[in-house]
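pinned: reference chain
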Amino acid sequence: MNPSANKVRIAAAAILAALAAAAIAQAPALTRTVVAKGDVSVPGREAVAARVEIAPAGASGWHTHPGDEISVVSDGEVVLMVAGQPPRKVAAGEGFVIPAGVVHNAKNEGTAPTRLVGVYVVEKGKPLASPASAPAP
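pinned: its C-alpha cells
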C-alpha cells in the first residue's frame, strides 16, 4: 500500500472527526418552536406560545424577554435561576412566571431532555429573547 495514500486517508479521517465533534459541540442546548402567535387585548403586545426543549446537561443561557413569560414544565425538571432569587427546581407539572426584563436562566441537570410549554406576552416587533449577562452573585 502506498504510504502517501495512507497519510491522506488518516488526515481525511482526522478532519471528519474534528468536523463531527464541532457540529456536536455547537448543537443548541435550547430549542424554542413557536406554535401560536396573536394579538392580545393590550395595545402593542402579542402572545406567543412555544414548545421549549433543553438538552440534557444544557442551559438556556442568561437572557431576558420583552414581556412576561409563563411556563409549565411538561417533562423532566429544570433548575430555574432568576436574578435576585435563590435557584429552585421546577419539576414536570409545575410552572413559573418571569416578569418582563428580568434576567434568568434554566438548566437541565438531567440525562434526558426537559420540555416546557412557554407563553410569552411580549412587545410586538422585538425579539422573543435577548442574551443577558449573568447577575452578580
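why pinned: Helices lie at 3-25. The longest strand covers residues 30-39.
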